[in-house]
């Protein structure tokens, strides 16, 4: 039975759809073709929203950050979650990261960490990244030719990179991994701590408790790491309050980790499903920068952000009313037939590649350069040592509507050295 447009719209609010590529992309392809600006008002448990699925439309909304705001609904959550966030925001105890903010707060808060993610700073970090890439490819060799690539390699490598940048001790890394997976895996029965909004909120409170201790330590004894820069930042002469400080740590620790591990896992899976492209990349290692961006486009680990209109706006002949929310579908934009030649073909030499996986405009991902360096370093270490590799079971993806990718990738392989 063929999918209706209404069913396709509801699919974007179904976490299980993001664990089923064919189902998800069938829905998004239909929406791009039949109803690219589509009103979704009957997704069970969710407040209504506009589904924006065309690359040009996502770009148009991202560019106009004064007319389309992140607040008060920056992410797609259930109606219960939206209500709880509103109540906590009124109490001044809500998570308030860069993705929750608009200017002028966004501009000022973003500047605190911006220098740490500029290309010059990333080049200085590159030797440490390459060292960690080698450590985790060595670990693959030590595992004896079989492993779950996600859980035994991909989730650890970028976590070590970002927590090293923050200056956290390695003894805390496992705790951060668990909290990160619980935070982004709230819709997945294997990942979440609990099913209720209160149980998911408890994960955030654990993050806050950890980072409050870190803030106190860095204010008492400043160091030369990013954690110290955040803890000692001042806006108009005053330090950030406890929740804004903890929120900054949360976005760096989580967004800097889970998205990159999903790209590395999904990138390897794409190479396994397209052995001709794997062979091509091994023969032409100069294609690696293009291959990295193709992996990012292919996986698109951030599935959506929401925007709210500050005034009536016409888009493709449809009027979006003031106060209505829009879901910007990045996986859909990144398979838009009007922008990408043969968008469902994985092409390690794709050029140009105008993907929107990092967003656009003032909210462009702060860690984009870091993510590219990490993915590139890992595959530049892995591919020359790879003698053979194949799937050793069925890959599984995380159920989510926000950030996610593979949660299991069983592989069998042979490595040199």
TrEMBL record:
Transmembrane spans: none
Keyword Metal-binding attached: yes
Pfam families xref list: p450 (PF00067)
InterPro entries, per the entry: Cyt_P450, Cyt_P450_B, Cyt_P450_CS, Cyt_P450_sf
SUPFAM superfamilies: Cytochrome P450 (SSF48264)
A GO term for molecular function: heme binding
Keyword line: Heme, Iron, Metal-binding, Monooxygenase, Oxidoreductase
Span of the signal peptide: none
Any one biological process term the GO annotation gives: cholesterol catabolic process
UniProt KW Iron keyword: yes
Family listed: Belongs to the cytochrome P450 family.
Protein name listed in UniProt: Cytochrome P450
Species for this entry: Actinomadura barringtoniae
């Amino acid at each position: 039975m063929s999918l209706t447009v209404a069913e396709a719209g509801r699919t974007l609010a179904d976490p299980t759809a993001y664990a089923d590529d064919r189902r998800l992309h069938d829905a998004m392809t239909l929406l791009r073709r039949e109803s690219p600006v589509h009103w979704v008002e009957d997704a069970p448990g969710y407040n209504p929203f506009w589904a924006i699925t065309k690359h040009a439309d996502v770009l148009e909304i991202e560019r106009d950050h004064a007319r389309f705001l992140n607040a008060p609904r920056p992410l797609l959550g259930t109606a219960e979650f939206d209500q709880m966030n509103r109540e906590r925001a009124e109490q001044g105890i809500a998570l308030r990261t860069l993705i929750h903010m608009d200017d002028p707060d966004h501009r000022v808060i973003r500047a605190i960490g911006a220098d740490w993610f500029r290309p010059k700073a990333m080049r200085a970090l590159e030797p440490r990244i390459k060292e960690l890439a080698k450590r985790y490819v060595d670990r693959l060799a030590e595992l004896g030719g079989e492993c779950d690539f996600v859980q035994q390699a991909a989730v650890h490598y970028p976590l070590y990179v970002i927590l090293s940048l923050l200056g956290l001790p390695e003894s805390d890394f496992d705790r951060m991994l668990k909290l990160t997976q619980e935070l982004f895996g709230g819709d997945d029965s294997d990942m979440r701590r609990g099913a209720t909004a209160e149980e998911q909120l408890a994960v955030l409170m654990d993050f806050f408790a950890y980072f409050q201790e870190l803030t106190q330590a860095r204010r008492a004894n400043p160091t030369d790491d990013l954690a110290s820069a955040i803890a000692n930042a001042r806006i108009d002469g005053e330090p950030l309050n406890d929740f804004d400080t903890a929120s900054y740590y949360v976005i760096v620790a989580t967004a800097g980790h889970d998205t990159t591990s999903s790209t590395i896992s999904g990138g390897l899976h794409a190479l396994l499903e397209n052995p001709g492209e794997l062979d091509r990349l091994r023969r032409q290692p100069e294609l690696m920068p293009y291959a990295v961006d193709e992996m990012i486009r292919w996986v698109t680990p951030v599935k959506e952000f929401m925007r709210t209109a500050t005034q009536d706006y016409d888009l493709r002949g449809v009027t979006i009313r003031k106060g209505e929310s829009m879901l910007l579908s990045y996986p859909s934009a990144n398979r838009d037939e009007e922008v990408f030649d043969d968008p469902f073909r994985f092409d390690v030499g794709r050029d140009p590649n105008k993907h929107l996986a990092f967003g656009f405009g003032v909210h462009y991902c702060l860690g984009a350069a870091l993510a590219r360096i990490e993915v590139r370093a890992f595959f530049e270490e892995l591919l020359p040592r790879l003698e053979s590799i194949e799937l050793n079971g069925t890959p599984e993806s995380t159920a989510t509507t926000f950030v996610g990718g593979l949660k299991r990738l069983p592989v069998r392989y042979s490595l040199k050295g």
